[in-house]
Predict the structure.
Amino acid sequence: MEEGERPWWRDDLKMRPISCRNDSQWWREAVIYQICPWSFQDTTGSGTGDLQGIIARLDYISSLGVDAIWLTPINPSPMGDLGYDITDLRRVGSAFGSMEDLRLLLDLAHRRGLRVLLDGVWNHTSEQHEWFVESRGSRSNPKSDWYVWADPAPDGGAPSNWRSAFSGESGWHLDHPRGQYYWASFLPCQPDLNWKNPEVRDAVLRSMRFWLDLGIDGFRVDAVNFFAQDSRLRDNPRRRRNDRRPDGIDVINPLAGQRMINSFNRPETLEYLGPMRDLANQYPGTVLLGEVTLCEDSIKLAATYTRGKRLHLAYHSGLLSDAPLRAPLLRGLMKRVLDEFGDSGACWIVGNHDYGRLRTQWGGKKRDLGEDFYRLVAMLLVCLPGALVLWQGDELGLPEARIPAEIPKREIKDPFGKLLYPRLKGRDGARTPIPWDERVHAAGFTTGTPWLPVPARHLERSVRRQSLDPESLLNHWRQLLHWRRGQPALLHGATELISLRAPLVGLVRRASGQRLLCVFNLSDRLARSTLPGLSVASQVSGLVEGSTWDGKHLTLPAWGAFFAQLDA
């Protein structure tokens, strides 16, 4: 080595900052780890997590094999809704840390090859935001039209029948000093911004640019299908008996009794996405990931939002179901996603801060479906076409905390859960702190009193305990995600569904000369099949046990999977 020359291994160890890598399409098949800082790691003893806590756990996140992290809101907030009621779009809230903490997190994450997404909460603000304080002051001030205001109906009541997505009651709220109603899609403390106003759209773009200049890698766009309302304030039609059930909402919520076509899910939203994409394109490698779950047809609408010059990705509620995960359901779902999205734009979620844990889907609320089932689900999710959001703690197989058995009624923090208790238990059960070490207070999350209890059932699934067990679900996820990184067909490949009889579901992923066969047995019994028209070159070893191919017949154990390289 010449004098002064930099040793090659130093750059290897640092893993060059991702801004230096020419991979602007990284997001197409990315695995994005969703973090709620409030529940991840507390470093101050306050009982709530912070940015320094995420920094302290970056090596753990890197060990998973994910591509990026998405942080739920870290802005200043009264925390009426887990930070989704923001008072300043261009600051870090002191409860989470400082701007310097965020800069350090970005630097250290990038050095580990991890991208960082922030939550873009642009549909609404907190009622304490200075914009709303000014807007409600009069009908003639400069920000009087920055929110959705309307005169009362002739009888003095709400302007329309639009309902809150949270309470199912009217989302219109009378502001007596101004003498008008303001619209809030969610909580009364979260007034909706008026996206028809170009000044509002410009303010959102300035906020985006502020964070992109800081070095973040993109945004998860909160409630993107709520941005526009019917300009004539027409009522939502009643849902008729034969109308399809809406996506992303419990049927007992009164909002489900309406067809949600005027209060949100409006076509006007599409015109607002173009300028956002134009700005993102000025920062190569940036991604806009939209939340499109609560609507009439989330797969169709999410796909619409990713066509042309709009969002890069949008996640839908296709896998959020109480119905058992069986072959016909999954095959139909994959076909719909491929038909609607094509080869780009799809993103899958199962666990989520709004929709509960992975372990509670597909009937898991009523009974535990067994570790083998959840190991199969991990293999399936890694192989589905499109990106995946993995909710913190789902890699541990955490069950949802029971309310009120594990989170007493007096300790419920979720406003949705408080409003509808006991009919609906709310979202706190999926938001409990991560159990890092079962041997210490609060499982290592905090030295203080955790903002939500750590269920005793979670201790046996702690990070420490599972890290020491080669057969744990955590190490299963790690193995799968690191294996995935070496498979071109899973990183940027096309997808072909193959015809197999239930309970089997199969697909072929192909790219760069690789053809990868993935077969899943969605049943609790052994299954056999032939593979007509497919020529197996070699079975992938080390990922699963018990599946065999004898040259003519494929045999899979209960909840088993089979992976093979096919001849080109």
About this structure: The longest strand covers residues 504-511. Confidence is low (pLDDT under 50) at residues 1-21.
